[in-house]
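Chapter review: from sequence to fold.
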Amino acid sequence: MNFNTNEKINQVSENTLVIGIDIAKYKHFACAIDDRGRVLQKSFPIAQSHMGFEAFYERLLALKAIHDKQEILVGFEPTGHYWMNLAAFLTNYGIPFVMVNPMHVNRSKELDDNLQTKNDQKDALVIARLMRDGRFSYPRILAGVEAELRNGATLRAKIQEDLNALQNRIIRWLDRFFPEFTQVFKSFGKMAYAVLEKTPLPSDINGKTPEELLFLYRQVEGMKSPQLPKAKQLVEVAESSIGVTEGLVMARFEIATLL
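The token string follows.
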């Protein structure tokens, strides 16, 4: 056992009210134990609302007084993002809280009844006892500029993920209806998107001259000078395209939606 774990164990003394919470979307469950793992309060529900949080706070104060405890330590496993609202509430009231590894919770479930089944009330007790044993970590709650940067970075990563997914769907569409498109455009630049907007299907290109295609592409916002060589290539590959020719009404609707 390392020094860091000893420090955590020492944090839970006979004066500490240990509260384990199993986090859920609408209703959490909390259980109170002492430093020896004895249950002081069986699992009880906490509504994910302002009223529910206030009732939980009042209950904490009552348990603290009834059992003559001077300190409170709350812990939960970080289930998705549902813990964040409760964490913010606890921070505002100056109540310390810690995180328990979900893997430790899963491995510890069967110690009491030899079952690993999911049970909110049972999990709350398991979490509390893991806290008593020092098996927790201290979360770093960001605030101010750091919180803004984290949210911004998360948003940027999600948008990039969505863009990549959309591009993959566009490539899949092209593989079905205009597989020769990638012979002309190796990447998705302004002209490539202009072509997909104005003439997504080979049949839209067939019968048109390169100059007529350039006239269409110039109508796309931001497309000032489409390349004539690319337009000539499009005319050539469209004539011998092996793209699917059935279901084109919805195919056209699909690519418009993706764009």
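Two observations follow directly from the output. The chain has a mean pLDDT of 91. The longest helix spans residues 144-177.
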